[in-house]
Amino acid sequence: MKRKTIRELPFHLMILPGFLLVLVYSYVPMAGIIMAFERFVPSKGMFHSPWVGWKNFEYMLHLPGTLSVLGNTFFIAGMKMIGGIIVPVTFALLLNEARHRLFKRSVQTIIYFPHFLSWIILSGILIDILSPSTGIVNGLLGSLGIPSVYFLGDPGWFPYTLALTDVWKEFGYGTIVYLAALTSINPALYEAASIDGAGRIRQTVSVTLPALLPMIVLMSVLSLGNVLNAGFEQVFNLYSPQVYKTGDIIDTLVFRIGLENANYGVATAVGLFKSVVSFVMIGVSYVLAYRLTNYRIF
Asked: What is the pLDDT of residues 105-132, one digit of tens each?
């Protein structure tokens, strides 16, 4: 046992920095949950502020926009989840058919690049591109005789703009995951299908998609845990008061209540509610992942 511990010591030391970061920034701040049950007064601190019990949660549930914010969060996150599965799978299938190695790797690099850019950078780019007066997108629409669309200012268009831009940013990462899964398919299956007279499309339907199905199910199920994470950085950098009706999500509501209005107790209650629901969804997603694809962490 002692010899095994010594042999594995370098691996534990490698994990230590990440463990400390998670401990300091994720677990230590959990002490602040107590503010959800207090009328928090900064001068008195977390442990001496007046205790109000469940009143912050009652206030949260009676806020005029609470239900619409919940609906927006589920709607936007749901669109991102669906697009985050369909687009990468489709693109991976198309890219897998490319035979020119340099072209294939170049395309992978290009589509993967936006994944590394922050939403602060991308939001500035998107605001210029989608501008109703000077944006290139509306310029193209105008050349086709289509009226300009205020993508970031029209409540009807804003949720779909969020979903499309998020899929554009992240689908390169998903494509690489599915391309890696495609490499594990036995070539003999394609040879057998070819002998039976199946063309490329039929091979994709009968061989490739069934082989990818476990990975698709796994990625779909695991994404359920993030259903309430509709993307604070993206929404915060792109939204405005005129699209609050359809673009406001739980995280932006917490930001406004807590930091802009200094109502820390209610903001903590909203955040705690989201965390509890997310915890339940993550538990359900892992149970489904184990039942459907035999995936397990431990």
From this structure: 888 888 888 888 889 999 999 999 988 8
Tokens 């391309």 correspond to what residue? 179
Do 192 and 102 meet the contact criterion of CB atoms below 8 Å apart? no
pTM of the model as a whole: 0.83
SS3 for the chain, per residue?
CHHHHHHHHHHHHHHHHHHHHHHHHHHHHHHHHHHHHECCCCCCCCCCCCECCCHHHHHHHCCCCHHHHHHHHHHHHHHHHHHHHHHHHHHHHHHHCCCCHHHHHHHHHHHHHHHHCCHHHHHHHHHHHCCCCCCHHHHHHHHCCCCCCCCCCCCCCHHHHHHHHHHHHHHHHHHHHHHHHHCCCCHHHHHHHHHCCCCHHHHHHHHHHHHHHHHHHHHHHHHHHHCCCCCHHHHHHHCCHHHHHHHCCHHHHHHHHHHHCCCHHHHHHHHHHHHHHHHHHHHHHHHHHHHHHCCCCC
Tokens of 204: 């994709």
Per-residue pLDDT tens over the stretch 219-230: 887 777 677 777
- Rg value, the chain, Cα: 24
Nearest partner of 225 among 155, 171, 295, judged by Cα: 295
Distance from CA of residue 161 to its chain's centroid?
A: 15
